[in-house]
């Protein structure tokens, strides 16, 4: 199965359009105010209007009040809501109920306990594992602690150079990248973005099962008599 790609930290329509052209499954707009990739609501609305029906749009939140998430959803129309703070299972369920969007619960992984903590989030649509160490990929050994069968998004320090190894190790539903394809915070590098998608496609092709050759049918009696 092909690995999906989510491009996060989108702050402008041009980068969103480029991601869609390359085949992005989703683009993410971050609303966490301290983030250097924060997207202002007015620009997020323009991004969503430009790419709706061609890709999914995610709103990324960190410990935001529920009413604020709902208000921004009503204004922008997210397909996905990504919760990246201390939100508990009940809060995640309420976000899904009040917005109608699919919910991604993200955690930063420093040890196996962080991975197992996601098991409590059974009502969300996706789990996302990010690295506790900025710029570094998640240790693939830690992924073995995951028991849930909820689709996995893998983030954390991914680049065109290492995304292939990450896919082989984790077999995720999707990979999620922000800083690894940037020219500067909030601005994507077109060449690196293209290289990332190419690396994902190359890895998927290498992992695809080789079809077995079709069996050759033995000639029946009638064919044998005709040859005689």
TrEMBL record:
Keyword Amino-acid biosynthesis belongs to the record: yes
Catalytic reactions on record: N-(5-phospho-beta-D-ribosyl)anthranilate = 1-(2-carboxyphenylamino)-1-deoxy-D-ribulose 5-phosphate
Keywords noted in UniProt: Amino-acid biosynthesis, Aromatic amino acid biosynthesis, Isomerase, Tryptophan biosynthesis
Enzyme class: isomerase
Superkingdom field: Bacteria
Keyword Isomerase: yes
Pfam families: PRAI
InterPro entries from the UniProt entry: Aldolase_TIM, PRAI_dom, RibuloseP-bd_barrel, TrpF_fam
Pathway(s) annotated for this protein in UniProt: Amino-acid biosynthesis; L-tryptophan biosynthesis; L-tryptophan from chorismate: step 3/5
One Gene Ontology term of the molecular function aspect: phosphoribosylanthranilate isomerase activity
Domain N-(5'phosphoribosyl) anthranilate isomerase (PRAI): 5-198
GO biological process, one term: L-tryptophan biosynthetic process
Enzyme Commission (EC) number: 5.3.1.24
Segments passing through the bilayer: none
Family, per entry: Belongs to the TrpF family.
Record's protein name: N-(5'-phosphoribosyl)anthranilate isomerase
Source species of the chain: Capillimicrobium parvum
Gene name per UniProt: trpF
């Amino acid at each position: 199965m092909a690995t999906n790609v989510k491009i996060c930290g989108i702050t402008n329509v041009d980068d969103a359009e480029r991601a869609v052209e390359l085949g992005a499954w989703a683009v993410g707009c971050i609303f966490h105010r301290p983030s250097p990739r924060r997207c202002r609501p007015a620009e997020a609305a323009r991004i969503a209007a430009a790419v709706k029906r061609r890709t999914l749009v995610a709103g990324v939140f960190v410990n935001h009040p529920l009413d604020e998430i709902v208000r921004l959803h009503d204004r922008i129309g997210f397909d996905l809501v990504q919760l990246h703070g201390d939100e508990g299972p009940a809060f995640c369920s309420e976000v899904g109920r009040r917005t109608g969007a699919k919910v991604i619960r993200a955690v930063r992984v420093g040890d196996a306990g962080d991975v197992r903590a996601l098991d409590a989030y059974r009502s969300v649509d996706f789990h996302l594992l990010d690295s506790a160490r900025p710029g570094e990929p998640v240790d693939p050994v830690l992924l073995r602690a995951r028991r849930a069968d909820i689709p996995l998004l893998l983030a954390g320090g991914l680049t065109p150079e290492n995304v292939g190894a990450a896919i082989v190790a984790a077999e995720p539903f999707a990979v999620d990248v922000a800083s690894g394809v940037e020219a500067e915070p909030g601005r994507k590098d077109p060449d690196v973005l293209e290289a990332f998608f190419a690396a994902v496609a190359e890895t998927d092709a290498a992992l695809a099962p080789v079809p077995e050759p079709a069996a050759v049918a033995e000639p029946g009696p009638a064919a044998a008599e005709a040859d005689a």
